Task: structure prediction
Amino acid sequence: MTMLAAIPYTSGFPIDAFMQGVAAQLKRRGLRLGGVVQHNNAACDDRCMAMSLEDLGSGHRFPISQDLGASAAGCHLDAAGLAAATAAFVGALAERVDLVMVNKFGKQEALGEGLRQEIANAVMADLPVLIAVRRDFLPAWRDFAGDDWVELAAEAAAVERWIADAIRRAA
Result:
């Protein structure tokens, strides 16, 4: 069994809430988590959804969106915030957490940036890694990850079964 699992999802699916729910359930069970999940502030006005990444080890949040003003069509990813979030992975690797979660493999990772190196470092450290991948980024994901990963449905029971198996293998 591979130590890398991806949850492909379609645009519009509430993947951030799903990943938050998985993380919360795993923490309640006492698992040590590393990596990040995304939070979206829906209270932000109509043109902007404030986004942050939560470090699953410390609970610290890193803002990752920048409001481009009233005439902008939306917000844009703040690369500086994303770079700061890489700190979440340093502790995860040093502490050999039970599972590393990554909010998603998205545009930045497809371009060779974002959290791409942190994902690779966690995989190379033989830690179980769970990540979400929007379906339109699957070709870039496959170029990055190769064939040594498992596809999981966005179903809590299936994800939790894979996590339990991966943690047993990593022990």
Q: What stands out?
A: The helical segments are 15-28, 79-84, 87-95, 107-110, 116-124, 138-145, 156-170. The chain has seven helices and nine strands. The chain has one domain: 4-36+54-60+78-170. The CA atoms of residues 9 and 43 lie 24 Å apart.
